[in-house]
Amino acid sequence: MKHGKLYIALLIAASGFLFASCENIFAPSLDTSSSGQILSDQKTIEGVFTNFKYAYSYKDTSVYSGLLTDDFLFTYTDYEIGFDVSWDKPTDMRTTSRLFDNSQKTEVIWNNITVMIGDSLNMSVKRSFNLTITFNPSNIVRLYGFADMSLTRPTSDSPWKIKRWRDQSF
C-alpha cells in the first residue's frame, strides 16, 4: 500500500511537469519582436498615415485623437447644399466615434502622395485614399478621393499631428 501512494504521488508530479511544459494553444504567447509593431511614433509623415490606418482598422479613438492637434479643423464639401462644412476636433472625435460604433468594419488604404511641400515643422500633404465602411453586409459605403492635410509639430524631434484636413472624396 505504501508503494501505491508513492506511485500516485510520482504520477501526479510527473503529470504536473508534463502539463507545465505544454503550450496552451488557446492562449498563445505575445509577439514581443519589433517586427510585430503596428503603431508608429509619428516622427515621420508616413508614421502619421500608419497610425491613421491603425485607428480606422481597429476603431481606436485614442490613437485617432493623438493624430490631431488641439486646434484641428476638418472640412468637406456638402454637395447637396453646395457649401463647405467645417468642424473642430471635439466634433470630429464625436463623429468618428459614432462611425466606429455604428460600423462593423472600417478600412482605409492610403495610395500615392501627389503633393508634399513644407519644412521640418510644417508640411502640406495631399494623398489619395480608398475608404470602405461596412455597416452590415448589405450596406457598404466606398469612398475614393484625396485627403489634403496640413501637418505640424513644435520641434523637429516631436511627432507630426494633423492641423487641417480637407476631405476631397467622391
Q: What share of the residues does DSSP label as strand, in percent?
A: 35-45%
The amount of helix comes to: 25-40%
Quick one: CATH class?
Answer: Alpha Beta
Distance between the termini: 83 Å
* Mean pLDDT reading: 86
Low-confidence stretches: 13-21, 30-36
Based on DSSP secondary structure assignment, what is the total number of beta strands?
6
CATH fold field value: Nuclear Transport Factor 2, Chain: A
Strand order of the largest sheet: 2-1-6-5-4-3
What is the total domain count? 1
Characterize the largest beta sheet: strand count, sense, and whether it forms a barrel: 6 strands, mixed
CATH architectural designation: Roll
Structural class: alpha+beta
What order do the SSEs take from the amino end to the carboxyl end, as H and E? HHHEEHEEEE
Shape: globular
Radius of gyration: 25 Å
| Count of runs of 4 or more consecutive helical residues | 4
Walk me through this protein's architecture:
By secondary structure, the chain is of the alpha+beta class. It has a single domain, classed as Nuclear Transport Factor 2, Chain: A, CATH 3.10.450.50. Helices cover 30% and strands 41% of the residues. It has four helices and six strands. A six-stranded mixed beta sheet has the order 2-1-6-5-4-3, covered by helices on one side.
